[in-house]
Write a structure and sequence with these properties.
Distance between the termini of chain B: 12 Å
Order of helices and strands of chain A: HHEEHHHHHHHH
Strand order of the largest sheet of chain B: 1-2
Shape of chain A: elongated
Radius of gyration of chain A: 24 Å
Strand content of chain A: under 5%
Oligomer: heterodimer
Number of strands of chain B: 2
Order of helices and strands of chain B: HHHHEEHHHHHHHHHH
Number of helices of chain A: 10
Strand content of chain B: under 5%
């Protein structure tokens, strides 16, 4: 009898896994969002071999070239080559194509790091407050307070206090996202702990730590993956806004926000400086959001069934 | 206590708690930095005497609880200190910059609600139809386009190419309604996109959910016209989530204000904040954060109070 029970329990996840994968693979939102995102990730990863030149190199002979213009470029080793600036150059003669490709790296790193960190901290906070009453009272009031401050304003304040660098920008955006994850995990924990199998585990004397790890945590993973993709999208937008406002990463780092911030001054004559990074940013964020929508619909039928955000 | 009073007291207490938490956090963030808080508050351009002056006025040598007491006492009297960059009190600065931000925010909210609620209701009514799918696609797009990119696209298209509206800037309401509203249209459209997307999604979900309820079947069975069923039965019952998301989305709106004002050169609180950040004028940033958070909390408290009207169940 016990053997039978064990084997059924063990059989469940393996039986469920192929269906989940098939559902994912057939969801068009996951497919489209995933492939576009994979394309952008690949392009920024392979940037060095995709015909770029140094994205920070100033070139006084090639200032404000319009997209598609061909001109001679002197490389760092003194060699002169004909180059097609198919995204144009900016007011300092830097190649927008190279800058946009390298800028993608920064956006992706920030998106992924902020998502990972906020999930991690949000998970710890959410599990703790869903399970320990005094932590709940204390921490959730703090989360309410954090959520009352408009995100960009809080991030601006923190970056200004700490001085901008990759680390502080990631940390500042993470801090604005933690409360949402914390609240999500808390409400999931509160509903999961009412389930009969948790009650059963408690009644046979399972320790709290094991209970959280073995029974509660696995049930929060699907909603967290969905939430993580949305956070990734929000973080990339937030970084570009900080850079655009002139308080993000130092201006010598090519990020999409920085390219646009510099391009905005001459936007009326040379809109390409803003439009190319803008389109890349919007498409990347769009693909992440589509991936998130698809994941939500396939992984997590209970949560946001009708398509609303949490 | 009657249920109404219990509800009211509970909401007011929780609003005050959130406000206190914000105040304490803003205070602590300023004090728990590695740099000298007096130097931070006085700003980069401050002289040694000014820093010393700040140090004394803040009582930085005293225990942190006493420091908080001094600062909070000033706050309660409406004293947010003086901006070292502008050489004016922070309250004066905010008062000067309030009108454009208020105008932009109100115009955006009105525009977003007027577009999002009807669209969302139709999409929810025709769940899965072409309008529904278009609206969902549009809202995903709305969550993905950076506010400033949209702003520049609109300036480029509407103002520069078509020449229909002024490019940038702000005209005071006192100088006439027409220039005022003409300069407000593009920024409001820009800012309302993400807010519209959010409200439309929630309206759609709430309406389509309400349409599956028994009372809708009853309404249809007794022969009411479909528009009456959708508006009087489904939409009315979807009012609570819609109103709630309008309140919660306010943080998105207030974040967007900062960027939109920058793009359209509107001399409001958002611009003031960005200038303050660039000048490291922390008293101003602190004050704007407090003001925006207070607005958010108070608006959401008012929205909680409308539940008493929108959802009579709360009264019993």
């Amino acid at each position: 009898m016990i053997d039978l029970l064990d084997s059924t329990v063990d059989a469940l996840p393996t039986a469920a896994a192929p269906t989940a994968w098939r559902a994912l693979a057939t969801n068009w939102s996951v497919r489209l969002g995933g492939s576009v995102l994979a394309f952008f990730a690949l392009v920024s990863l392979l940037a060095p071999v995709l015909g770029v030149i140094d994205p920070t190199r100033l070139d006084s002979t090639n200032i404000n070239r319009r997209p598609g213009v061909s001109s001679a470029v002197t490389l760092a080793n003194g060699e002169s080559v004909q180059r097609n600036f198919w995204m144009g150059t900016d007011g300092l003669g830097r190649d927008i194509y190279s800058r946009v490709l390298y800028g993608g790296r920064v956006s992706l790193v920030i998106g992924v790091s902020v998502a990972t960190l906020s999930l991690l901290f949000g998970l710890i906070i959410g599990l703790a407050s869903g399970y320990v009453r005094w932590i709940d009272v204390l921490v959730m009031r703090m989360m309410d307070g954090l959520m009352a401050i408009p995100g960009i304003l809080l991030a601006l304040f923190l970056v200004a206090l700490w001085r901008a660098s990759l680390g502080t920008v990631i940390l500042a955006i993470t801090l604005t996202e933690i409360p949402r994850v914390g609240r999500l995990v808390r409400s999931l924990t509160l509903s999961i702990r009412e389930e009969p199998y948790v009650e059963a585990a408690v009644s046979v004397g399972t320790s709290t730590v094991k209970l959280l790890y073995r029974h509660i945590l696995p049930n929060t993973i699907a909603p967290l993956i969905v939430q993580g993709t949305y956070i990734c999208a929000v973080a990339m937008l937030a970084e570009s806004i900080l850079s655009f406002l002139g308080v993000g990463l130092p201006t010598d780092v090519p990020t999409w926000g920085n390219i646009m911030a510099e391009g905005r001054l001459s936007f009326n004559q040379y809109p390409h400086n803003v439009l190319f990074p803008g389109v890349f940013l919007a498409l990347t964020v769009l693909s992440v959001n589509m991936l998130g929508d698809g994941l939500r619909d396939t992984l997590d039928p209970r949560f946001g069934k009708r398509g609303e955000r949490p | 206590m009657t249920p109404i009073w219990r509800f009211l007291v509970q909401r007011v207490v929780s609003a005050i708690t959130v406000l206190l938490v914000v105040v304490v956090m803003v205070f602590l963030l300023m004090r728990l930095t590695l740099d000298d808080p007096a130097a931070i508050i006085a700003g980069d351009s401050a002289t040694t005497e000014q820093i010393q002056q700040v140090r004394e006025s803040l009582g930085l040598s005293r225990p942190i609880v006493v420091q908080f007491g001094i600062w909070f006492g000033g706050l309660l009297h409406g004293d947010l200190g003086e901006s070292f960059f502008y050489k004016k009190t922070v309250v004066q600065l905010i008062a000067q910059r309030l009108e454009p931000t208020l105008a932009l925010a109100l115009c955006t909210i009105v525009m977003a609600v007027m577009v999002a609620v009807p669209l969302g209701a139709i999409a929810g009514w025709r769940h899965g139809g072409w309008l529904d799918r278009m609206l969902m696609g549009f809202s995903t797009l709305g969550f993905s386009i950076p506010v400033f990119v949209l702003g520049y696209l609109l300036i480029w298209l509407v103002s520069l190419k078509l020449g229909w509206l002024p490019v940038q800037g702000y005209a005071r309401l006192a100088d006439g309604f027409s220039p005022f509203i003409r300069r407000l249209i593009l920024p409001s459209v820009t800012l309302s996109l993400i807010y519209t997307a959010l409200i439309a999604r929630v309206t759609r979900a709430a309406v389509s959910e309400a349409l599956t309820e028994d009372f809708v079947r009853t309404a249809r069975a007794k022969g009411l016209p479909e528009w009456r069923v959708v508006i009087h039965h489904a939409l009315a019952n979807a009012a609570v989530p819609i109103v709630t998301v309008i309140g919660i989305g306010l943080t998105l709106l207030l974040s967007g204000v900062v960027v939109t004002e920058r793009v359209f050169s509107i001399p409001g609180l958002g611009q003031l904040t960005v200038e303050a950040v660039l000048n490291r004028d922390f008293r101003v940033i602190q004050a704007v954060i407090l003001l925006f958070s207070m607005t958010y909390v108070l608006v959401n408290l008012l929205i909680d109070l409308t539940y008493l009207v929108l959802d009579p169940r709360i009264r019993y």
